[in-house]
Write a structure and sequence with these properties.
Elements (H helix, E strand, L loop, with lengths): L2 H27 L4 H7 L2 H13 L4 H25 L6 H22 L5 H19 L8 H17 L3 H20 L2 H6 L4
Length: 196
């Protein structure tokens, strides 16, 4: 590994960590503070940012590492803010979010593979887009800005992760299937206990 590449890797992972720390801290700081607080405290923005970090990482393993590091930063920023403000942190909640960070690493690995050609790339691109689409699903009942933001993020990810017209077309059926499965089987409700 060349010295320049190693330096870039260190800078990228530090960027992922500090971005996560900032977003976690801001999420706690802005909690209950109108639309900005709801958006930055929403899992959708975290999925969007981690998918971008993974997509623009040179190697698949690093994509998983960067996504994991980002989520660790979010968790540390959020709970660090609580501790510094004199609040209590429940270990069970921290462990729960650490498991979420591991899942985020797996999704980061999958997102990196969205650059593959044909069906594999389409399937991998569909995963984060489907997560955002499933989270935004209740928008058909009631329009809210955070849900609309999730829709916009899903469209941006589809454009960025599936670069060609055929790649996008190949991703669409999987987005529909994955979103339906996530919503129909209440995966978000099961994972997050009705939190989102």
């Amino acid at each position: 590994m060349s010295r320049g590449k190693k330096k870039f890797d260190v800078v990228f992972i530090l960027f992922a960590l500090f971005l996560g720390l900032f977003m976690g801290w801001a999420s706690r700081d802005l909690q209950g503070d109108g639309v900005p607080g709801v958006i930055i405290g929403n899992v959708g923005i975290w999925i969007f940012v981690s998918a971008l970090l993974a997509a623009y990482t040179p190697e698949a393993f690093q994509a998983a590492l960067h996504a994991f590091t980002y989520f660790i930063g979010v968790i540390a920023g959020y709970y660090g803010n609580i501790l510094l403000c004199g609040g209590n942190v429940h270990v069970k909640a921290v462990v729960y979010w650490l498991v979420f960070a591991v899942v985020g690493a797996v999704i980061g690995f999958i997102v990196w593979n969205s650059r593959a050609k044909e069906w594999l790339g389409g399937i991998c691109a569909a995963v984060p887009v489907s997560l955002l689409a499933a989270e935004a699903w209740p928008i058909y009942k009631a329009f809210t800005i955070p849900l609309a933001f999730d829709v916009v993020c899903a469209v941006i990810l589809l454009i960025l992760l599936a670069p060609g017209k055929y790649q996008k077309l190949m991703a669409l059926p999987f987005i529909i299937i994955f979103t339906f499965a996530l919503v129909y089987f209440s995966v978000f409700g099961w994972i997050f206990g009705g939190w989102i």
